[in-house]
């Protein structure tokens, strides 16, 4: 495999009430991919159909989250529409306590997750 970087995008996901790291991570990935379009990539690289393009793409996701051990990577990666997928989860993001959270530990704060998405193309599969 001879992957070359094609696209880089960032996203942010927020869970306002439940500190659900997976929901916030999915929102961060969705936020990143909704700002980009790979229109024409299939034609430019000489792929005959979407299946060929799907086989040549690798989408590398890095998630920065306050509780990395709670992230279910497979669940987060389901957001991606195409390509092979891999995920790295690192400490980061933000947990912001709300005033109610400071008084009552049963109430959750705001959780912010950041995502970096790198789309790569396997140049060994390009048919030009």
Please indicate the percent range of residues in DSSP E strands (runs of 2 or more): 35-45%
The secondary structure category is alpha+beta
Total DSSP helices = 5
Low-confidence stretches: none
Please name the CATH architecture.
2-Layer Sandwich
The sequence of SSEs as H and E is: EHHHEHEEHE
Largest sheet: 5 strands, mixed
Shape descriptor reads: elongated
Question: Can you give the mean pLDDT?
Answer: 90
CATH superfamily: Tubulin/FtsZ, C-terminal domain
Termini separation: 17 Å
Structure in words:
The chain is α+β, with helices and mostly antiparallel strands. It has a single domain, classed as Tubulin/FtsZ, C-terminal domain (60s Ribosomal Protein L30, Chain: A, 2-Layer Sandwich). It has five helices and five strands, in the order E-H-H-H-E-H-E-E-H-E. It has helices at 21-33, 41-45, 50-56, 73-77, 99-103; strands at 3-15, 57-65, 84-91, 94-96, 110-122. Strands 1, 2, 3, 4 and 5 form a five-stranded mixed β-sheet that branches. Helix 4 (73-77) links the parallel strand 2 and strand 3. It is elongated, with a radius of gyration of 17 Å. The two termini are 17 Å apart. The mean pLDDT is 90.
């Amino acid at each position: 495999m001879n992957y070359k970087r094609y696209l880089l995008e960032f996203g942010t996901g927020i869970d306002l009430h439940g500190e659900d790291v997976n929901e916030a991570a999915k929102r961060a990935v969705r936020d990143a991919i909704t700002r980009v379009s790979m229109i024409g990539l299939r034609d430019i690289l000489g792929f005959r159909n979407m299946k060929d393009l799907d086989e040549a793409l690798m989408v590398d996701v890095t998630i920065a989250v306050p509780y990395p051990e709670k992230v279910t990577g497979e669940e987060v990666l389901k957001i991606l529409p195409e390509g092979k997928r891999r995920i790295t989860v690192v400490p980061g993001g933000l947990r912001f306590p709300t005033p109610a959270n400071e008084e009552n530990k049963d109430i959750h704060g705001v959780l912010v997750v950041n995502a970096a998405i790198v789309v790569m193309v396997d140049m060994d599969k390009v048919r030009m």
